[in-house]
């Protein structure tokens, strides 16, 4: 009798503790690549199906400027760069943090056979295609991105296509959090230190009017094996865009994105897993002890 009751008690106690303090467990992506500050007592009224209870902020190192990973969902009011625990389903929103370096227009990744290159950084920047006719590289245009639009998945398909053409495994993001100024020693209280940007508005590549502009098709990105971004280009505008051609025009900044880094292939097992393992272990030890005592008494 004693044994099942104490095990039940143990499980109930740990359950209750985890429900009240950290309904989603610890922040699941600890790493030496960035610092994490959490306020597990944070809460605020719920937006739609998200009930924030606890939040964390990831701080990227000084030689980086962009953070990918926190939830970026305008429809849920989640655009401030914090990671939130959603009490509604006990899940941390967002994905593993990735800090991206600064943009510079001389760093590029090229795939000659697909006539594509990524200008800006080692795994991020803006996509350019090669034009056989003018023998020049030029930007992809007509690719419109809205911060608060739920067509994110469609945008990501274009990013996936471009990234695969560039020999990355997949796209990582088309919008991300850009660091604001902050003092490195001012770690508390947590303040909004990031601003959500479509990467095309953040990088804002500028080109002379003479470069070829590759206006992308309005249909969904082709998914089939071996598809290339070149295949999905509707028209190439050589020379200045005609007036009123908004898809070609200068303020249609282009296809800027981040790809899933090839080198960064390490997988993180969530700390919450470690935690539940630890709890299970503690409970098992407790049960064994109780059993031993019970046996000794008998
Ligand atoms: C938890 O809820 C959020 C917000 O609705 C959702 O995006 C997420 O996929 C859910 N996670 C799980 C594991 O159900
Ligand atoms: C590249 O960056 C430099 C310095 O910011 C700028 O002067 C130059 O115009 C840029 N070139 C292109 C092609 O964007
Ligand atoms: C460029 O043109 C050559 C032949 O004219 C063709 O074989 C090649 O596929 C073209 N490359 C691209 C990227 O369109």
Automatic annotation (TrEMBL):
Where does the signal sequence lie? Answer: 1-18
The protein's UniProt keywords, in alphabetical order, are: Signal
Coiled coil ranges:
none
- Keyword check for Isomerase, yes or no: no
Read off the InterPro entries from this record. SRCR
> Which intervals hold domain SRCR?
116-174
One annotated Gene Ontology cellular component of this protein:
membrane
Query: Which top-rank group of organisms is this from?
Result: Eukaryota
User: This protein is called what?
Assistant: Hypp8091 protein
What organism does the UniProt record list as the source?
Answer: Branchiostoma lanceolatum
Q: State which gene encodes it.
A: Hypp8091
